[in-house]
């Protein structure tokens, strides 16, 4: 009896090659699905660069320090977009269509869905921060050491993780029709209040204090540390704050997921 | 105890899935009441019933997407929703839309990768009739084409158990015939198929076993003939120059309808009605008498739950 069951199980096992192919295809098609959707990909890819061009380069013509500062903060702004929209709005819409029901009924591992979206959000982030860096170097005269560029890229791309988790929680809670609007209502104020659009020191004191409670502020401060323009707190404080937010968003996602399953 | 049960099920090769004494309520409202059902290989089971009768709840429990309150559920000798069960199951559920920016070919390649032994790509295309649409983006599909794609996705994994929830919605006649042929082929190759439909002709033409659900209970089960037999009505049809009102008062006539020069009588006693009819109007032409179809049976059963309960009690 036990033997039969084991044979039976083996019959329906998938080997590593098959599983690798599954994750590869899930990611590939998630990427194609996203890039082919101009309503998402155009704003996600172009807005951070256009904003940076106006506020970081043209308005601060010749002020390389300001351009370096805003490069760091607009990088954070750019990374938040795909994280919140691909996970948040994208997931909410597919959930609303009933499409996720089909996926759940299939033997697709739930992790394939999460990992593919995570990889796609990170690829988008990478494209955005590389475009920003090209603009910064060629048009604003920003000059950094290689290690600074590499560290910045790592901070930006890995720093997108808490926002992916926030997006995941939103994607599991929001209704499909209202999801894009709600995500924007969270994304844009969060970016402004965290000092991503204009330096935090230009905001009034109470807003500067309030920014301490927002995750993008801490990611921006980490990035600013690389170019020595941060507000002077220790790195570990920012990393700890981001980790705490990641845990909170993860727990919220779990709660939302469990609620849905019932 | 449960292990024993699943061993029994595996030893009797033809039972693919089974539920016994299944109960499910939502917030105190009973959705399924003490339900028993066996799903066998080489069989199409049609689950019929009005909206809210419990069809979707039953399918979701068999897919492991809902937890039953109590009762035993076995799908391919496994708990419902387990990975091994899922790898042998296909499901075509009702979906408002698919991700629009993928092509049909890509959707199918992706779903094939979910299964250890996927069905051959060309075979999937043939079954679903999608050969000419492989490069089409799913946003450009009509309702019927979308259904064909969902059908393709449901059979990608060579399922032993296939759930089809309203599969032919939005399909034209040709596509529907193609779908029915595919369902018959899959059935003949051993697949157990659970079909829900509002379209009774679909159940009539495909199902080996029909289960009629009402308020979460099975009020009737059997094959086509059993269902027809449960309605004692006969349908008497003829051409006459007289208006249909003339026939309403004939003995044993339950209903009169007219289309063109043809008049249809539903009779609870064909002999009585025919005798009186031929006396009243000897000049009628094209006279036919036939048993009621599934549609009449379905309406009849769904309306007279009391009567049906008596019948099933006697039958059991």
Automatic annotation (TrEMBL), chain A:
GO molecular function terms listed in the Swiss-Prot or TrEMBL record: ABC-type transporter activity
Subcellular location: Membrane
Membrane topology: Multi-pass membrane protein
Highest taxon listed in the record's lineage: Bacteria
Keyword Membrane: yes
Coiled coil: none
UniProt keyword annotation of tRNA-binding present: no
Keywords associated with the record: Membrane, Transmembrane, Transmembrane helix
Domain ABC-2 type transporter transmembrane: 23-224
Cellular compartments per GO CC: ATP-binding cassette (ABC) transporter complex
Residue stretches spanning the membrane: 39-60, 66-93, 114-140, 146-174, 181-200, 236-257
Family indicated by similarity: Belongs to the ABC-2 integral membrane protein family.
PANTHER family the record matches: ABC-TYPE MULTIDRUG TRANSPORT SYSTEM, PERMEASE COMPONENT, NODULATION PROTEIN J
The protein's name in its UniProt record: ABC transporter permease
Lineage: Bacteria, Pseudomonadati, Pseudomonadota, Gammaproteobacteria, Alteromonadales
UniProtKB/TrEMBL annotation, chain B:
Annotated ABC transporter domain residues: 17-240
PROSITE patterns referenced in this protein's UniProt entry, alphabetically: ABC_TRANSPORTER_1, ABC_TRANSPORTER_2
The organism's place on the tree of life at top rank: Bacteria
Gene Ontology terms for molecular function: ATP binding; ATP hydrolysis activity
SMART domains in alphabetical order: AAA (SM00382)
Name of a matching Pfam family: ABC_tran
Coiled-coil annotated spans: none
Gene3D superfamilies according to UniProt: P-loop containing nucleotide triphosphate hydrolases
InterPro entries in the record: AAA+_ATPase, ABC_transporter-like_ATP-bd, ABC_transporter-like_CS, ABC_transporter_ATP-binding, P-loop_NTPase
Organism of this sequence: Paraglaciecola hydrolytica
Record keywords: ATP-binding, Nucleotide-binding, Transport
Protein name: ABC transporter
